[in-house]
């Protein structure tokens, strides 16, 4: 059982995208739930096992997390340099939706984009430090709410979100009816100009 | 009048437990009660058809026509179409896919019947019996439909397979990780909105960004403070606009049930706090 | 050294956010680089160690991945806040047609499915990286030919296309000719069963 519990805990720690607390862990189990002491013991076990592994157990304010040992960071850096990941269209669209519509859940992003958003995609944005979880929406499933970070603003040389380029205005539904030549100014624009 | 009914969705669960359909589905063919064959898959929420010569799921009707146990010419296709329409009304958005399947089936039947009714032009005498053509197409489709069901059962990422990830250590890289120009971001968003526009045909309104930013700031502050005095959220130096933006952000958060506004006594200080996590 | 190498590999596997290949691993090292054999040995070591852990090493199309043991996925699902994405029948059928009949054009898919395949649907599959254009069929209009990708196999935990479930065989066409009683088992089915 001891062994089994630590296996479950390791699985939980390695799939949560945030630190997890002992309360989080308790909630995962049906009755009979393990006691907090048993959980702590199992966590200790993991901590011990990690001595010969590439990862270590860290306790921080909001719970526990498994992270790669700092001493191995050079290899990780190499792997990241090796493939300077190009941002896919999916990533860019997701990032822009988070930027302009924050705080937003993954489900909401999917609803607008019309296609699913992979877990790894969001993880990638979080690992890059551009996106973070700022809370949970109070609906069934308590989905995480994502926002952009200060690093995101820094990267684009912005001080505030409102400095983001203004959104191209959505096409007026009524004007979609008739096709307009591309290289000629839109009538509605020229008429509004005359007002200035 | 609605004489279609969706089969009880919980049959799906039963089906999982007992792969064979047993006596779950019954149909009446030419006044004779008939149990469905084992090799026919009838989805949960199947469209049930009620005709003079047949009563049961459309899947079964098609099966019978395929096997020539029922003559397409005896089938009132108009009635099927009518029942299909009321079926769609019954189905919620989740089942629209299934409804689409039945539209295909109903269309096949209509096409088939019309071809059987029309006198065949002389020069097409060697043309295949339209039923054979229908059967071939249905069979080919059936194969891939089943293949799709099998693929759906393969364990997959985020459902049965969970990739293990550990937090990254601190590190610096020589090479820039990526290079994303700011315009790309806006272009990407414009693109996604344009598509959303096309597919949903409704406007998605984007609130003022500054309100969004303020919402994020308040949420962030609540991660550490969890209980914030209302007035401390307002910065006088931001002026009137700042006050309005902050107020709008609070209202948005309230609307989204992300915060609560509490006051311990009448005329006492107002506080905002996060919604308690329900355990 | 052996021990150390497996630690590094574990760290890489747990931070790459994608499956990693032996070539990826080799590139991470400065000279002297470990040999591929040494890497394979270290991967075996990890695989062995995983017996008593919550995760397992899986070889899939584009490399190796550490993933939660499937016997533990029920616990993860509890902690997981987002509901697993369900694919529409249209998506699954299109995907299976591309998987089994690749390379295939959209027109060919539509011919079998009997309904139009939305641009949005194919675009969604391509964006997820499961489907790609591999060429054009040399017929009027030069329609694009679609195939599945390694990522598609990765997603379903497969190494090769041949690991996909077997395609159901076509029922015997000639047997349909003769009338069959409704309430007796279909002969054609029982005969095809004997083929398996």
Description:
The complex is a heterotrimer, with two copies of chain A (196 residues) and one copy of chain B (279 residues). Chain A is of the alpha+beta class and 196 residues long. Chain A has helices spanning 2-13, 22-28, 36-49, 73-82, 89-101, 106-113, 119-127, 150-155, 187-193, and strands spanning 55-60, 63-68, 104-105, 131-136, 144-148. The radius of gyration of chain A is 23 Å and the shape is globular. Chain B has 279 residues and is α+β, with helices and mostly antiparallel strands. In chain B, helix 3 (77-90) packs antiparallel against helix 4 (96-117) and helix 7 (209-225) packs across helix 8. Chain B contains eight helices and seven strands, in the order αββββααααααβαββ. Chains A and B meet through strand 2, helix 4, helix 5, helix 7 and strand 4 of A and helix 6 and helix 7 of B.
Contiguous low-pLDDT stretches of chain A (5 residues minimum) are 170-196
Count up the helices of chain B.
Answer: 8
Strand order, largest beta sheet of chain A: 3-5-4
- Proportion of residues in extended strands of chain A: 5-15%
Shape of chain B: elongated
What distance lies between the first and last C-alpha atoms of chain B, to the nearest angstrom? 46 Å
- Gyration radius from CA atoms of chain A, angstroms: 23 Å
| Strand segment tally of chain A | 5
Instruction: Please report the distance between the alpha carbons of the first and last residues of chain A.
Output: 77 Å
- From the structure provided, what is the oligomeric state, counting identical versus distinct chains? heterotrimer
Short descriptors:
heterotrimer, A: 196 residues, alpha+beta, three-stranded antiparallel beta sheet, two-stranded antiparallel ribbon, 9 helices, globular, disordered C terminus, B: 279 residues
